[in-house]
Amino acid sequence: MAEYIPNDEAAAIAENLIEQSHRRLIGLKISHLLRVMPVPKKKKTQTRIKKVTLAKISKVSSKTNAIAEKDYHFVVEYGSLYWDQMPDTMKRATVDHELCHAGNDADGTYLIPHTIEDFAEIYERYGCWKSDVEKFVKAVLEKEMKQEGADV
Length: 152
Description:
- Helices cover 43% and strands 20% of the residues.
- The protein is built from 6 helices and 6 strands.
């Protein structure tokens, strides 16, 4: 079973980002947890590359809030192996990205899915902040260049 501890660093980053860029989340209770992960054992051969999940956000159910006697709207879970190795800018981009998934309007709270590969606003603030975003942008640019060459 996984062990979780509060991620106060992420919570402080989120507080600042909510005020700056995610005002729809002001007043909502969002828990930031660090999932303590063991160092993986080295395998002799690697058959496929696993996608790394830096963080994920979930909507907290009323059932969970009743059990915990809390009133959280969302919980963001960060993997300790990755979080501890990230430079500050990447930590900020990761928290910012997860907050983009948190929706709140007159109908209540909800999760927002990705737009294509990432949120445009995160790309505008941080550029290619992780390898899968960089790979996506590179593929788009290569496609655009090929199309421009065909149009000449």
